[in-house]
Design a protein that fits this description.
- The complex is a heterodimer of chains A (271) and B (291).
- With 271 residues, chain A is of the alpha/beta class.
- Chain A has eleven helices and ten strands.
- Chain B is α/β, with parallel strands linked by helices and 291 residues long.
- Helix content of chain B is 41%, strand content 21%.
- Chain B contains twelve helices and ten strands.
- Chain B starts with a strand and ends in a 5-residue tail after the last helix.
- The chains are: A alpha/beta (271), B alpha/beta (291).
- Chains A and B meet through α6, α10 and α11 of A and α7, α11 and α12 of B.
């Protein structure tokens, strides 16, 4: 069932002539992992902000579990259902101790303290940061900070997490940690994931990819379809994961291979 | 020797000391393209800030063209003209009303004449692929992220540095923007003969562009060599929370499974040919297609 329905959404930032979103349609189903890719300035972050009412459409509609984001009465309920994680972990952590940071959201819900404790510990466990409860966030690595930020969202028990380039500032290990956490949330906790990314390898792990160009979603399809559409990829200023490229090169030289999305799949298929 | 770091130690916050760099010895020759890698907090950014005198080492010396840059702090301005540093997310430092003024900020500060400034701005914008007439009067804040970054880099290039240091210049750029930026670095290195030091978390960038890779771990230089040498040490890199370029990882895994391939290959076409050749060898020996 569709959890988030975006219909013909238009939006312009104040004082800007060009529309940041110019008639976007997209449906996101409960439990899905959707990647959004597109050039800088194509509208990805604007679209993400529509999903938890950081922005509301000028025209068209966004509904989350049937609730319209344009109705101010729905704001807090929607924000509890859809959490957001941004690029820079340092801008998202506010407290001096990890557990206080994760507790920030649930405390604002005025939950009983045992419930908050329980949620905080569980959230830290899910992101693999159990034991860091009393650590100061500024002493954590980038990947750890991002996982604490995700834990803060999880403690709100959301149905959906929207992540806007959460790995852009991380080193390779930090990227892996965060990506594995995202996959676990989706597969084990059944949380809907919307991931905005410039890493094509990350997008390749999604159930479906939405491609954005100049404020419009121009294509929605599973990764293997998107990455075999070379015309679309080059027109949208995107790229194809290295492993997929290599697989294609080999296929063109007569090696028969199944559809490849990751390096591991390619190795497995060849040997 | 263009740049030499000698027995460098750097400690932040002497009251509650954090050792950022220890026992750093590094020589960089004119025309090198250095790839500097290491996990967050390994000391990369501290190291590059020492190179143009933004930080003074707690101990040890930094030489540029044989001169100790901290011996005479008054000469630092001169050194900063020659060693350009592009910070992470340099577009956050754009502040002027027009693109042309922003790029001219550095040249103005070092006291260049109006005509010379305009000439420098034109050249620098052209280098980064932005048309002077089209962009000079535009506000830098109404440009796309990739364009903003190129304006910021043009601001550094307008000082005509001999050495260009870039800290994660492609982070957050879309694939096309990243490719353009990498092409620019290749051009600056090969055509204008700039010495380049590139900090990157993208191993494939470093593998493809760098003539020498320096790996930092816990404030020390842990590994150093050609991309082939460094990325041949996958196990060591993983212990330092680093990774292999995707192609290297694929070739390494295939080799581990018995396919006779070299692993020191960083271009797609060469990797393809190597795998094809490996498969052929196996086929010959076993009359079977897989290994």
């Amino acid at each position: 069932m569709s959890q988030i329905v975006i219909q013909d959404v238009e939006f312009s930032y104040r004082g800007q002539q060009d529309k940041a979103l110019d008639g976007v349609d997209l449906e996101i189903n409960q439990g899905e992992f959707v990647a959004i890719i597109g050039a800088n300035g194509s509208g990805k972050s604007t679209l993400a902000k529509m999903m938890n009412v950081l922005l509301v459409p000028d025209r068209g509609s966004v509904t989350v579990e049937g609730l319209s984001t344009s109705d101010p009465d729905n704001i807090w309920q929607i924000r509890q259902q859809v959490g957001m994680v941004f690029q820079n972990p340092d801008n998202q952590l506010v407290a001096t101790m990890v557990e206080d940071d994760v507790a920030f959201g649930p405390e604002n819900l005025a939950l009983p303290s045992e419930e908050i404790r329980r949620r905080v510990d569980l959230a830290l466990q899910v992101v693999g940061m159990d034991g860091y409860q009393s650590h100061p966030p500024h002493k954590l690595s980038g990947g750890q900070k991002q996982r604490v930020a995700i834990a803060g969202i999880l403690a709100m028990k959301p149905d959906c997490i929207v992540l806007d380039e959460p790995t852009a500032m991380l080193d390779p290990m930090g990227r892996k940690e965060v990506l594995n956490t995202i996959l676990r949330l989706n597969q084990e906790e059944n949380i809907t994931v919307v991931l905005i990314t410039h890493f094509m390898e990350e997008a390749g792990l999604a159930n479906k990819i939405a491609v954005m160009q100049r404020g419009v979603v121009t294509e929605v399809a599973p990764p293997r379809e998107i990455f075999s559409n070379t015309a679309l990829i080059s027109e949208a200023g995107l790229d194809i994961p290295e492993a997929v490229k290599l697989a294609k090169e080999l296929q063109e030289r007569g090696i028969s291979l199944p559809d490849i999305m990751t390096a591991d799949e390619l190795v497995e298929a060849l040997c | 020797m263009l740049i030499e770091l000698k027995d460098i130690r750097h400690v932040y916050n002497l009251d509650d000391p954090v050792v950022a760099l220890e026992n750093i010895n590094l020589e960089i020759t004119q025309g090198e393209f250095i790839g500097l890698i290491g996990h967050t907090g390994s000391g990369k950014s501290t190291l590059v800030q020492l190179l143009n005198g933004l930080l003074q080492p707690t101990a040890g010396q930094v030489f540029f063209q044989g001169q100790d840059i901290n011996a005479d702090r008054a000469s630092l301005q001169d050194i900063r003209k020659k060693i350009g540093l592009v910070f992470q997310y340099p577009e956050h430092q754009l502040f002027e009303e027009t693109v042309a003024e922003d790029v001219a900020f550095g040249p103005k500060n070092v006291g260049l004449s109006r005509e010379e400034r305009e000439k420098r701005v034109k050249e620098a914008l052209q280098l980064v692929g932005l048309d002077y007439e089209e962009f000079k009067d535009r506000s830098p804040f109404n440009l796309s992220g990739g364009q903003q970054r190129r304006v910021a880099i043009a601001g550094v290039l307008a000082l005509k540095p001999e050495v260009l240091i870039l800290d994660e210049p492609s982070a957050g750029l879309d694939p096309e923007g990243r490719q353009k930026l990498l092409d620019l670095l290749v051009y600056l290195h090969q055509e204008l003969n700039l010495t380049i030091i590139l900090i990157s978390h993208r191993m494939e960038e470093v593998a493809r562009l760098a003539s020498r890779v320096v790996v930092m771990d816990q404030g020390k230089i842990a590994l150093e060599g050609t991309p082939a040498e460094v990325f041949n040490r996958g196990e060591d890199l993983k212990k330092m929370d680093l990774d292999l370029p995707v192609l290297t990882q694929i070739l390494t895994d295939l080799k581990a499974r018995g396919l006779p391939v070299r692993t020191d290959i960083f271009s797609l076409e060469k990797a393809r040919d190597e795998i094809l050749a490996g498969l052929k060898k196996i086929e010959k020996s076993r009359e079977s297609k897989t290994c």
